[in-house]
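Cont'd.
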Amino acid sequence: MDADLLGNWTTQLRKGLLELCVLATLRGERMYGYDLAKRLSGVAGLVTGEGTIYPILSRFKKDGLVETELAESPDGPARKYYRLTPRGRALLGKMLAAWAEVRDGVDRVAGEGQP
Amino acid sequence: MDADLLGNWTTQLRKGLLELCVLATLRGERMYGYDLAKRLSGVAGLVTGEGTIYPILSRFKKDGLVETELAESPDGPARKYYRLTPRGRALLGKMLAAWAEVRDGVDRVAGEGQP
DNA sequence: ACAGCTACCTTGCGTGGCCATATAGTGTGG
DNA sequence: CCACACTATATGGCCACGCAAGGTAGCTGT
């Protein structure tokens, strides 16, 4: 009952943050979806499955934030690598700024009383 | 075009955070909706209007996280004050913990490269 | 009477995360 | 040799939240 409320809420909490983390992860190196899902799933329970990652990457490509590149895999099917475009890099910058602002705002409100 | 993407994203970013801020604001003192909207709208652009606050308060009451109390206002219609229940206080604690975890996780991912 | 502020509430829409599911290539064990 | 497990990509439907817009009503000042 309460677990449901909390679970639902954390799902909502992830909205937007996942996109930010995907973009930020692509900032340094090109990556493919499956690997992204595995890496981010190790971070604070951000990702639950691959079904969450692929739609994000599709949207990013549609919006011109990333570009793709197919490459063979040593073990398994071919991988589709994603790489940031300049546009994606610019948006990431703005998103990081917005995140910092909102994060600090929330911490200010949530932190009053128990510093 | 990019402004739309960013605006849409920040909307998604707020999901869940608003509920957290409302609960956290009620932690110290009882408040009414209109005042809550005004206070939170001054914080990092968290709230855009009262239409966002009232549904949250309704859900909270339905879920037994807050209880209400009508009181006359010195100027204007009666105010409906909201106050945390023990259940709401307990959930707030868990949400604050989850928030801290996710926030740090995101900062770890987003901060790599530009420390 | 009227404008304007306070204060409450509801409806409909857009969006993103999640589950289940589908597809397919590659290697391992019974 | 076939079933299984792992790698890897992709999609459709569901649900909850935030938000703009709209509506109701009380009180004050002109």
